[in-house]
Specification:
With about 325 residues, chain A is an all-alpha fold. Chain A contains 8 helices and no strands. Chain A is flat. Chain B has about 500 residues and is α+β, with helices and mostly antiparallel strands. The longest helix of chain B has 30 residues. The chains are: A mainly alpha (about 325), B alpha+beta (about 500).
Chain lengths: ~325, ~500
């Protein structure tokens, strides 16, 4: 196949992957809404199919460009999507056996791919000599992996905050209600609570539902595990970038905006990990720090390339 | 820790400002542009040091506070940890109150069973303390050690940065093909030379001779494929010690210097003579303007000046040169010029008073253009009459040859067109230290995040002829992973008791 054909196949498969991910997202939301097992299974199958198309698309792109396909934002986004789906399938569905979060994870993936289609598509091309180094492979791979893992961690953090809020509301609602009979609220000599029918069942108000999300503790732990995985990878990737910069530009750190923002993101997630180990900061406050980190991640990944003049700008 | 965290976040905030406001060390021209468009805000920023956030006193001050706080936190933690790893594990009493807990019956008497258990645990790399029939074991000092290494590595990193940047220097050198450049202060581009705060002013005196500069471009996209400079290395006495090739991503290490390929340009060799006497001779290092959006940088022409002060009494002259390295570029506007191919120079003669001696620019306030024309490689023009005095005429333009009879007085000759190569040269002895610190940061971080402290106790009590082993375990972190390890350890304890286990009782 010619280079053009390869590039076209790669692009078509990218589109296929995008639509399959959208379908997987819808299936997962359908599972949450209707609680049909088959929907969850469908979502998983679609996820695997989409991931396969995505990976093949990346491989064809590499063949078309004659190099590893991590040279511009379009290629980064494709890689990011594949990494995030893989991390979700392995880390959440397989290892943690949680199936209600797929829709949100795929939404993150679909967003990044849609950005690539809308703003970043370029044909395969040769790299600038400054990009031609094996450190590029290590640096870019780790940065993309870290971005996808941290991004998912932040998605789970948002869900944690939502769930935690609704749990708190439930608790306060329970406190306002009349104490349930088992607690001694309906002391009645004729019918002592122990003998009341159904007295052992918890008595809940009308608004208390099981909810679609896992318990906040589960979400918090999941978010932590993703961030604790992404953070060392981010650290490693940034250091590889510095090593590469030392070789390519003659300085390991020059406060270029991309470097600066990767430092800022690093700092915020470091803050999150510390906060989580500190009494009084665990939970909601730590989660807010992680959200700020998400914003910074977004700036590092998109905004620096699009709006800030940087020597990393050629990567658009 | 909270102080350190707040200081760290302050640094992040300052950095964010530094990435949004143009920074002088990175892009002085954008700072100038900002100052010209925002007069008031620009002045405020300038006073606050926001055009060089990373070099201001307050950025350094926050960093100093951060590291003070960090070290103040690390010293007692390190001391406590050193004490903790030397301490014997502490015995526990209520083993059945622990989250993980098993009981089993073995044939051996309590003392022997405890010794077997201690052996098993030691083999599993626990630190073990035995006291009669009771065994206490502990593992995972690596977690705190990793955390300490991670944090101390930042101190090491800071030392590497301060020593390396402080005692080093870096600058840019432009060398024309065939010429030799020596590492000395005056030979650097003064605007880009950065000296460390503690640099003793002692440049190495090493020399570089540019043997050849080579590059290649993609003919379709005009994107560069490679640039490289073949260099001869000369020691401080000027004697050649070897050759090396500097290319992008592949710097040359020469003693303490590192030489990086940074850029390139054209340096036409031009000589000016008056009545047979040479006024100026040599390569003119030409510069280029940044190409507008959508136009290849290679399509831009190159500019340079030949300045002839007092060429006549009370009259200075400057010849402005505009170079098309590929003469076809003159006809085909926007064509990328990859190589030297029939190079063409358009010159303009300015007369008046020269205000600055710089070869890169011309202050034209007291000057005016008097004439101009074209010249090819190998041709000579008469600057007084703007006609070709010798050599090939620039045929793309109707350039007249000089009329015979009158001998030209002031001439300009375009001899040849070599490249010059821009090399970034610098010394930074802190790089290995910074690299070591970076490795320690990653290693320490992994240990701190992915190991855990686990404690395990075994007590043997007499039970009939044999004894009852009570095993309890506790993980301070990563509890779910410890569950599996605990089960395996219990299995190993059972196996080590040599099949004499009577009954393994799982606690409820």
């Amino acid at each position: 196949m010619s280079t053009d054909e390869l590039a076209r196949w790669s692009r078509d498969l990218f589109t296929v992957a995008l639509f399959v991910y959208i379908a997987a997202m819808l299936a997962s939301f359908a599972f949450v809404a209707f609680r049909r097992r088959s929907m969850a299974r469908l979502s998983t199958v679609l996820g695997v199919v989409g991931l396969t198309a995505n990976v093949v698309s990346i491989v064809l792109r590499a063949a078309a460009a004659g190099r590893t396909p991590w040279g511009n934002m379009y290629e980064y986004s494709s890689m990011l999507a594949a990494m995030a789906v893989a991390a979700y399938l392995i880390g959440v569905e397989w290892r943690s056996k949680i199936r209600t979060l797929g829709g949100f994870a795929y939404a993150f993936v679909v967003f990044s791919m849609a950005m690539a289609v809308l703003f970043f598509y370029v044909g395969p091309q040769d790299l600038l000599p400054a990009l031609n180094s094996y450190w590029r492979q290590i640096h870019v791979t780790s940065m993309i992996t870290a971005t996808s893992v941290l991004g998912l961690g932040c998605v789970f953090t948002i869900l944690f905050l939502i769930k935690e809020r609704s749990e708190r509301r439930q608790v306060s609602m329970l406190a306002q209600q009349d104490p349930p009979p088992i607690m001694g609220g309906a002391i009645d000599a004729d019918a002592p609570p122990d003998f009341a029918p159904g007295a052992d069942e918890p008595v809940l108000g009308p608004s208390v539902r099981r909810g679609v999300l896992p318990a906040s503790g589960v979400l918090d732990h999941l978010a932590y595990r993703f961030i604790a995985l992404g953070f060392p990878i981010w650290t490693f990737g940034t250091i590889c970038g510095a090593i590469w910069a030392q070789g390519a530009w003659g300085r390991y750190w020059g406060w270029d905006p991309k470097e600066t923002w990767s430092f800022i993101t690093w700092t915020i997630f470091a803050g999150y990990l510390h906060a989580r180990a500190t009494a009084g900061w665990r939970g909601r406050r730590a989660a807010v720090i992680a959200l700020v980190g998400f914003g910074s991640l977004f700036v590092t990944y998109y905004a620096v390339n699009l709006w800030i003049a940087s020597i990393h700008s050629y990567a658009t | 820790m909270r102080t350190a965290l707040i200081l760290l976040l302050l640094l992040a905030l300052a950095s964010a400002a530094g990435s949004l406001i143009p920074q002088f060390p990175n892009s002085p021209e954008r700072v100038a542009q900002f100052l010209s468009t925002h007069s008031v805000l620009g002045e405020v920023y300038r006073r606050a040091g926001l055009f060089d956030v990373f070099g201001t006193w307050w950025f350094g001050f926050i960093t100093a506070l951060l590291f003070t706080s960090l070290i103040a936190c690390l010293l007692p933690r390190s001391r406590a940890h050193l004490r903790a790893i030397r301490q014997r594990p502490v015995h526990a009493r209520e083993l059945d109150a622990l989250p993980l807990h098993r009981e089993m019956l073995v044939a051996a008497p309590p003392e022997v069973a405890a010794r077997t258990a201690a052996r098993v645990l030691r083999r599993r790399r626990f630190r073990v303390a035995t006291e009669g029939a009771s065994v206490a074991a502990e593992k995972g000092a690596l977690r705190e050690a990793g955390s300490l290494i991670f944090h101390w590595a930042f101190v090491l990193l800071l030392v590497g940065v301060i020593v390396g940047k402080g005692t080093g220097y870096s600058g840019r050198a432009a060398i024309v093909e065939g010429q030799t450049w020596t590492d000395a202060r005056l030979n650097y581009d003064a605007t880009r030379l950065r000296l460390g705060r503690y640099f003793d002013g002692d440049f190495s005196g090493l020399g570089l001779r540019l043997i050849d500069y080579r590059d290649a471009f993609d003919p379709e996209t005009a994107l560069p494929l490679y640039f490289e400079s073949e260099l001869e290395l000369l020691d401080a006495s000027g004697a050649p010690v070897g050759t090396a090739v500097a290319s992008v991503n592949h710097p040359v290490a020469f003693e303490q210097l590192r030489v990086y390929q940074y850029g390139f340009g054209w340096a036409p060799v031009v000589s000016a003579a008056k009545d047979g006497q040479v006024l100026a001779d040599g390569p003119v290092l030409m510069s280029q303007q940044t190409a507008p959006e959508g136009r290849s940088q290679l399509a831009q022409t190159w500019h340079g000046f030949v300045k002839l002060p007092q060429v006549r009494p009370e009259v200075d002259m400057a010849v402005e040169l505009e170079l098309w390295p590929d003469g076809r570029g003159f006809l085909f506007e926007g064509m990328p010029m990859f190589d030297a191919n029939a190079p063409l120079i358009r010159y303009q003669v300015w007369e008046g008073r020269l205000l600055d001696p710089s070869k890169a620019s011309l202050d034209t306030r007291f000057m005016r253009v008097v004439r101009g024309g074209f010249l090819w490689e190998g041709s000579t023009v008469d600057l007084d009459r703007a006609c070709i005095a010798a050599g090939p005429a620039a045929t793309v333009t109707a350039q007249a040859g000089c009329p015979g009879g009158v001998e030209p007085s002031l001439t300009l000759t375009f001899d040849s067109l070599p490249h010059y190569s821009v090399l970034q040269v610098g010394k930074d002895i802190g790089v290995p230290v910074v690299l070591a610190a970076a490795i320690l940061i990653v290693v320490g971080l992994l240990a701190a995040l992915y190991t855990s402290r686990r404690k395990l106790w075994v007590r043997a009590e007499p039970a009939g002829e044999g004894s009852r082993l009570i095993v309890g375990g506790l993980a301070l972190q990563r509890r779910s992973q410890f569950q599996t390890e605990f089960d395996r350890t219990v299995d190993a304890l059972v196996a080590a008791s040599g099949g004499s286990v009577r009954e393994a009782v799982a606690a409820p």
